[in-house]
Design goal:
Length: about 130
């Protein structure tokens, strides 16, 4: 089992041309993905995006990151924070990924390897 990451140990980066979709997990889960307004940044431990929907902190969601010239990346995540964005029309929302490893309610190790590759590709200063 591979544990999650502490946010300060992961570099944040942007992926030009990327987008994000999400859907709720739960008894009354939505059947389809909802488009986010904007993907702000991403790291190996989580990401932030703009959306119009207010979430309860701790809510589980499936995040689908659309990356140009790559397969979409789906990650089980939890809402960590949400606040009014600088545009005053949307909510800046932060998620952390659930742990990576074998078993239910975990993200596959392959997803972590993709995040590591993206980190090497897009982080300019370490």
């Amino acid at each position: 089992m591979v544990q999650g990451f502490e946010k300060r140990t992961c570099h944040r980066f942007e992926i030009p041309g990327s987008s994000l979709m999400y859907k709720k997990i739960g008894i009354f889960r939505e059947k389809k993905y909802v488009d986010a307004i904007r993907l702000y940044n991403i790291s190996k431990g989580g990401l932030s995006f703009a959306c119009e929907e207010e979430f309860k902190i701790g809510k589980s969601v499936i995040i689908k990151i659309i990356i140009p010239n790559d397969k979409p990346l789906e990650l089980l995540s939890k809402i960590c924070w949400q606040r009014e964005s600088s545009d005053k029309y949307s909510l800046a929302t932060g998620v952390s990924y659930m742990v990576f490893g074998e078993g239910s309610n975990r993200n596959p190790i392959e997803a972590l390897n993709i995040l590591r590759r993206l980190d090497k590709q897009y982080v300019k200063v370490r």
